[in-house]
Amino acid sequence: LLGSWYLLVLAMIPGACYNYKKFSGILPTYNAKTTLLIKTQEVAKENLVTTQIFSEVANSRQVIENALLRSVTIYEVEDLLINHYIQTYQSTYPKTFNTYIPLGYRFDKTQPEDFSREELQYFDFILDKVTMPLRDFSDGFVTISNKDKLGFINLNISTPSQELSLAFMEILFTTLKDLYNKSIIHADRIALDGLRVKRDSVKRLFDKSFTTLLSRRDYFEKKLKARDTTVDLSRLAKRIQKREMNTELLKNEYLGYTKRVKDAEVDLSNKIPLIYITEQSRWPLEPYQPSVKYAMFKGAFYGAFLMVILLVMRQIYRDILTESEVESLLEPSASEL
Fold first, then answer.
1. Phi/psi at 161 (nearest 5 deg)?
2. Which of 65, 116, 263, 281 gives the lowest tally of CB atoms within 10 Å of its CB?
3. pTM of the model
């Protein structure tokens, strides 16, 4: 093996050159990270379930889809996030990205159901790139990890632009909260809004009845003091008594709806998780770029390691051949004996 050192050197060159070509074209990227702590006001078991549900919602393509079609201001230009994303990558990696989407292409519609077939094709490409690492792209995709038992959820996005990374993370966080509230707590909110409408309706009826009651009482006392014989006071008293009963019923009904609304609000607040931002990336972001020297050393090491294996296998093969040759030479002499 020592006499084949030159083969090791030759084997190191292709690996080093391959990694140099692969990593030298990668530009610096800026990673934006947000760590969320999800807590509920209920027991720990419910908090675990809530965290798991929140994590499932966070990992859904629907979150990314809604985020891409939201408007955001970057470089003092307000546009859809997906258009900023396309523009950034077309200017950063024109040779690779422009083969998938025409240069200068932009989206105008904000609902996927309104897209044409061509728009859907381009949109699916961007959605796939953001939701999973694709070949020939080292960044530009969202990663979401979680620790269910502790309630932590980590959101990460890395792009060639600081502004795009920070804006993407902000839109992603906002979209995640909105989608969770809409999909998980939507039914409870509708029920609560229905109770509030009924409560307000009964409240208006109660106010109207109570105002009428006060007016009739004043009229009755005024006629009673004036000893007005033209008015049937006994009949008026019965009408007042009937109005009092009706007002009391409306009052009790209103108080009942008020209690139900309060209980529903407490129940809904217990279901809504408290989201604490424990870590958040801020401007300026630290650029990250893989070390070309380290990549070349790694490639050279792999090449040398592969060559060592080949040399060892060759040496073992030669030893086997040598042993077989010795045995073949000894066999005739043994037969002569």
1. -125, 130
2. 116
3. 0.60
